Amino acid sequence: FPFPWLASPCAERFGYMSSAGVRGATKLPFNAVNQALLGQLGGLMGDPGRDPNAASNNSTDPGVSSIPAGYTYFGQFVDHDITLDVSSSLDSATDANTIHNMRTPALDLDSVYGRGPALDAFLYAFPSTGPTTAVKFQLGTNTNTGPGGPSNNGTPGGMVTQSQFDVPRIAGTNTAVIGDPRNDENLIVAQFHHAMLRLHNKVVELLLAASFAGDIFAEAKKIVTHHYQWAVVNDFLKRICGAAAVNSALSTVAAPPGSSFRMPVEFAVAAYRFGHSMIRDIYWVNFNFPTATLAQVFEFIRNPRLPVFSNWVVDFNAFFDTGVPVPVHNKARRIDSFMATELELLPGFTGLMAVLATRNLRRGLALGLPSGQGMANSFGITPMTTAQLTQGLPAAEVNLLNSNSGILLQKTPLWYYVLREAAVLGGGNELGPVGGRIVAETFVRMLKRDITSYLNVTGGFTPFLPSVVAGDFTVADLVAFAGVTQP
Q1: What mean pLDDT, rounded, does the chain reach?
Q2: How far apart are CA 341 and CA 254, in angstroms?
């Protein structure tokens, strides 16, 4: 069985951040009327013409945020590191405490490292000479279809034919041999997973060059994990939640190492799904594909186009602020309640399952999430007004929100509330006070309770891998050091 962790018993469960009283008083009842209402709302969340394409990446298009588009997929990678729900239903009311989380709720990169070389040896390349602990990850090869990926001179002619810019795959089926198969869902996240494999291998090489005398694999994993955690908090979260929300969480959240924790569905099913609204319909992938559609981003990680075609290798200089020149820097869509049109008909699904917004809304209803207003009040935050919730929305959506005595404006679904809050109060460039607090506090709690995290390093932790700014480490620094931003 290629992914043993899927078959293993898991003691971790989901849970709630809010109290039972808050949920009971403020949640939408799970009934046919509200299911139908949320189905209609999900259908209306498709973008009504605001389609930021390659030409408007650097323009004042109102649908474009200031956030580099790579953070959309970095956020997806992080999600796959901390949550996996394989059992909840959209069709019946469910207590989150009964649902297993098949991922460790810690930023420990188990989605990359699996259970380590001893138990998941298929992920690794073992040294034939030198220190036996200098264990690296296997890398995959590419199907030769010509030059692709990053350019060495900022022009199409600077691309080369890539040969090892994919995750490893099983011959014949091309199944990805990685710690979490979800990281092979689309081309961008698969290429980022490949970058993480290279990051570990680079750190192993650093330790070998320094004649490190201890367990090289264990030390490399610790270095990679701590730098990744730092980038999550100090780059990703501060962009998404705002520095004030992150700093507040760091100073106020009390979570002693080893303390109990259940992944809150207010985070996993609502607030952290902000990233769905950031997905674009069109991306500049490399010089060969300046207007790749979202459908192609999925199509080109499927048979018969595997292993990844060399001319489709992603140029991450267009997705993060690496400083390497590219003609277009993809910007994510604004964090708001308008979804990319291609998310309205997901391939391989029919009915409500084909509409991502509807699936998100129905899952929150089934799990009995508190309303956005209920969550705001529980935090001591003034809830958004009706005028704010409806600001800038199409008339059909406003009419729906006002229907049924305005129940969706009184008990606004938490995911939708977080998106509206980001649009109106965060300008589409960061989460508002409720969403930002849920996301920031959840991550900080995970890190504080993990005795091995960078927050619990004796004497403190300062990044030391190569970076643009000494003592810092961003996701752009990560992909650059991993070696995927140059041919």
Answers
A1: 93
A2: 41
